[in-house]
């Protein structure tokens, strides 16, 4: 789907980083497509076509630019201007659903037909689901070639290619060069850890995100260092343990992700989870523009630019943490979560001394004895029931279920109410519209001073915040905290 060049002309001419990944420029005279921030000479307006996604430009026959490297863009925000089915499908593709599955299977998971899904993709993304998946694999492989010293054979499978032969053929056809020839451009020194840079659109209030995570970190599993602006944690995938470290910079619009993990086949999955954890694909400019129509959120958004929804690494971990936090302080819940990790988690020894444990898997907790740890009996039962259902795959966090259906399902567990369910949805499902409307702080923050809205009244108030209610939640939590500080 071609975009109107007039709408984006100012951003293209000024190379505005806020528009990086929101559109891509196909240059008719060269057959190459670029990011709007590309430093090459700006082509004439009559010689370009604009595309909503890199996959759309690629499907139209354009080759990715070797200078601005479209694979390094923040990516197209999956939810901007797209219906729920498309945004969910994009998230599932990003998680690798088409690496081994088919469009038919993907469509069935979303309860629509494959032709309808393809038609929706062409309408809203400008490319087919297969083209999106192929571009995703290609871009990730190119990123690893440019930024790491991984052997090309490992990059091939890390990016989801089925064979080295196919890997070489796709690169030759796309770039006119083999992966080996592209690797010759690499100048970085060899290092033991794998490091990649992940871009985002400014602004991004990463300091607030680090503070949010610091307040809720699980001792031994997570560690935040404010002196170096880093977030670190242990990870566990496919029976293997490792750790990640995310570093933010005051000057650059990207994070540096360092990965210590023994199996490179999981690299794409790890990178995508980090993007979701820090909401790197979001478009703060678009969201804040939307909130300008609301008298309250207009002021709050202006005061807190770059607000994002902090995601999570593991859905079960966040669910346990949320249950432990019922009717106790955040600090107390953090202490309890640390006890669970220390007693039942796998010991870990890596390069970061503060990381000592892997958070236990659902299967382990389902049969664990949690008595004598300071956890209330009702919450013990809720945690063990959730663990059992996750272990049996009766509860999954893959984002296929719509949020309302997910909440209804998890609320069937005794001891889990709507607040806990919606909070989990907010952080785990990456739904920009998730809204824990029974939250006491929200009901106070959205009301005039001294007034507390009922959950029903808050829901009515929040109608105008759709489809960005999750961002409204974060803004209102910030607003309430700031107001409380001002009163002291």
TrEMBL record:
It catalyses: Hydrolysis of alkylated DNA, releasing 3-methyladenine, 3-methylguanine, 7-methylguanine and 7-methyladenine. InterPro entries: Ada-like_dom_sf (IPR035451), Ada_DNA_repair_Zn-bd (IPR004026), AlkA_N (IPR010316), AlkA_N_sf (IPR037046), Alkylbase_DNA_Glycosylase/TA (IPR051912), DNA_glycosylase (IPR011257), HhH-GPD_domain (IPR003265), HhH_base_excis_C (IPR023170). Pfam families: Ada_Zn_binding, AlkA_N, HhH-GPD, HTH_18. GO terms for cellular component: cytoplasm; protein-DNA complex. Its EC number is 3.2.2.21. Its cofactor is Zn(2+). Keywords: Activator, DNA damage, DNA repair, DNA-binding, Metal-binding, Methyltransferase, Transcription, Transcription regulation, Transferase, Zinc. Gene3D superfamilies: DNA Methylphosphotriester Repair Domain (3.40.10.10), DNA-3-methyladenine glycosylase AlkA, N-terminal domain (3.30.310.20), Helix-hairpin-Helix base-excision DNA repair enzymes (C-terminal) (1.10.1670.10), Homeodomain-like (1.10.10.60), Hypothetical protein, domain 2 (1.10.340.30). The keyword DNA damage applies. Residues 87-185 form the HTH araC/xylS-type domain. GO terms for biological process: base-excision repair, AP site formation; DNA alkylation repair; methylation. One of its GO terms (molecular function) is DNA-3-methyladenine glycosylase activity. This is DNA-3-methyladenine glycosylase II.
